Structure formats: C-alpha cells, structure tokens
Amino acid sequence: MDSEPIHPIRNVKSLRPQQVWKWEIAIYLYLAGMGAGSFIIGVMMNWFGFSFNPSKTIVLWGYPLGVSKAVLLWGPILVAIGAPFLILDLGKKGRFLYACLNPRTSWVARGFLILSAFIIIGLFILVISILPFQSLSEGTTARLVLEIIGLLLALATAIYTGILLKSVKYVSLWNTPFLPLLFLVSALSTGSMGIILSTLGYGLFAPYGPSFSQMINTLVGTEQILILIEGLVLGLYLLFRYRAREQGESSILLLVMGEMRILFWGGIIAIGFIFPVLLEYLYSNFPDYPILLFATGLFLLVGGFFLRFGILTAGIKDQLPMHKLIEIEYNLRSSKKLFL
Amino acid sequence: MQGKVLVVDHEKCTGCRQCEMVCSVFHTGASNPSRSRINVIKWENVGFYLPMTCQHCEDAACMSVCPKNAISREENDRVTVNYDLCIGCKMCVAACPFGAMGIDTKDRKVIKCDYCDGDPQCATFCDTNAVDYVDADKANLKRKREAALKFSELMRRYVGGF
A5 in helix, strand or coil? Predict the structure, then answer.
C-alpha cells in the first residue's frame, strides 16, 4: 500500500512564515498603537470634562506644574519610545532620516511623516498641559485646534500600523482592510487600559476627587465594550483570512492549529481576552479591590503585544502561479496512483 | 522591453546549485549560497528544481515600497539598488512576490540580481543551460513556441487527428 503522499511544498522556503520583520517591529507596532490609542482616549476624556479635582500641582524651580493632565496625555511618549525600534531594525541605522523621501508611493515614508508629526504635536500638547501657558490654556480656540490635529494624527498613527503591513500585498494574512481596523480597535483598547492604569496610579499618591470613581467606572465600561468589539473584529478577521483560500488559510492554520497555537490560544486569546474579561467582571462585583483592575491591565497589555507579534510572525507570502501549478501536477499524479 | 534577460528553464535544471556558488563568489568573493542573488527552489520528492531570481518586473513592487527611491530602473530595463541611498529597511524584501530580494547578513544589506553588470555568471557557468541570458524578444518567442507545442500535444492526446 502506498504511504500517504507527502505535501510537495511543505518545508519549502517560500511557504515558511516571513523572517524579515521580527520582534523589533512587533514592539514598535504595539507601542505606537497603544500610545496613539491612549492619546485618543485621553483627549476624549478631557473633552467630556473628566478631570481630577482638585488638580495636583508640583512646584519646580518656582513654576507650578499641573501634573494631573499628564495622566491622560502621556501617549506620545510611548510612540516616541516605539519609533527608535524601527531604526534598530534598519540595516544602515545612521541613514534613518532618509526614510521620509518617497511619500508618493512608499508607506514607510508616509508613516515616518505621520509618526514624526504626531510625536511633535503630541509632546507639545503634553508640555503645554503641564506648563502654565496663558495663551494656550484650556478652552482657547488655539488649544482646541491643536488637540483636534493631535487627535487626527493619533488616529492616523493607530491605523498606519495596520496599513504598513497591508501594503505588503503578497502576504494574504495582512492584505485586508480588517487589519488596520483590528489594530485600531486594539490600540484603543490597550490605550484605554493604559489610561485606567495611569489614573489608578495617580489615585495612589494624589487626593481622590469626587469624580474619581465615576471616571474609573466610565473608563472600565468603555474598556469592556472595546474588548468585545476587538474580539468580534479579530474573529471576523481570522474567518475572512481563512476563507481567502490563498496563503491566508495557511497562516491562520499555522496560528490556530500549527506551531504557533500556544502563542495564539495562550497569548492572544487567554491572556488578551479571557483573563481581562473575567477579571473585569470580578472587579465590577468587588470594586473595593483595585488590584483586580491592575491585573486586568497587565494581562490585556501583554495580550495586545502578543496579538501584534502573532500576526506579524504568521505572515506567509503567497505562492507564485508556478508553485501552484507544481502542486496541482503533483496532486494529480498522486491521485492517479491511488486510483490505478 | 529591450536588452537581454535571464531566462530559466526548469525542465533543464538538475538542482546542482552551481549558479548560487558562482553568483556569491562574483558578488562577495565567498562561496556561500546564502549570499547568492539566485536561489534554486527544490521539491526533492517530486524531482523538481526551479532557479528563482529577480524578474526585473515592469511594475516592480520593490521600487514602489522603497522609502528612499534607492531602487530604480536603468535605461536597459534593469532594476538596481543604489547602496549609497539604501537605508536597509527591508521593505523590498517583504514586498517582492518572487522572494528575489535577499538579505546579506554579513554585509547588512539587501541583495538582488543585477545581471553581473552584463555578464551573468549563473548563465555562463550553468552546464545544462537551464539559466540563459538571451535577447528579450527571443525569450518571448521561445516561450510562445513552447506553449504552442504543449497545446498541440494536448490536442493530439485528448482530441486526436492532429
């Protein structure tokens, strides 16, 4: 009896997951997404009037510094930490400034410009919210315009992390509009969790205002909705990529059932979704234990990183028509063997 | 298209990987297939070998994703990397559908076929002429003739009367 035909293209270079982008890019995708997401949530919270009352000020060299706004607007710092990881990945690190010179066709160049603009404007907003600037204080039109520009750039940064991968057309797993959407929702969910953690951390050493618990409740409610939306988008993303029938299917199988199943089920599903949902449910029943919320945050943030890492490292390039032809010929030959 | 192109005939390839050796020796001075610009993809259990190298595509994916315009098309339709401009972002490696862009980990740069400046070593050293450097028009004719032959053979086998 003939043994089962061996898959002709298994273990061939072109069907292995890509090796070009590794952990540096995953860290960058994660930090940029989370920073941009937290900035979006922070500015929104600020607009809807959630603030720490009384606001805490630190006097440094005779200047009063209002640190309470910084609790909501620290996002650009994370993006600024994440961007150097891109430079770390370059072959010629000294030439990183060249990366912005072809924005006509290249998404790397466009991203360079978007990220730089966001880091500059975001850090500027953060600085003027701490320093007592009269002309750009809360409520002035100039400040509002600046915040809207910052918000749009943060949105662009969060979506861009997905578009960078989507621009690699020949990897089916990435070439879908669901990927920027998934990264945007994940950015918002990890970002809002970051805001929750920084708010809780602020509450540890500053006086609780009357709106503090209301603020936490709103944030946790938003967070729960965002986790649900993220789970839904992830499910749809995996389903549509599986049905793409190209190497999208191979990538999904590699993630869900193949070598990366531990990362997928343990890192993305359990740590990123199940634990946070359970812990948040526990917290809503026992609101006197903020440690539950800290644990939720830790799990969710680690899960957010695994999501990026998993999607990045499971990308498999599409087969060329030549490869497909060989596979079909081989399968025909082996099926003939079976029947004759 | 003008000028000459590399043409690969998978039915002649024996999988000896001599092309990889001479390519790396020509470009790096070392006999190291991982630094070669041409790669032989092997399906050992079907006995099929396919040398893959840069196709110098008309709408080249590597050119459009390069953030610095370091990859450009020359007058004779050859697509080359300008190493004075390349920042090593590896976007072209990810974008190439043929896997023809490689990374030289020793020199820390991306590598691709440049026709050895007009005298491709792989074609010179290939014993079976599986890799050949021919006029672009001629290559096209050869493909057309092959397709016509295959078609007539199929017709003879399944329809008969030819």
Answer: coil
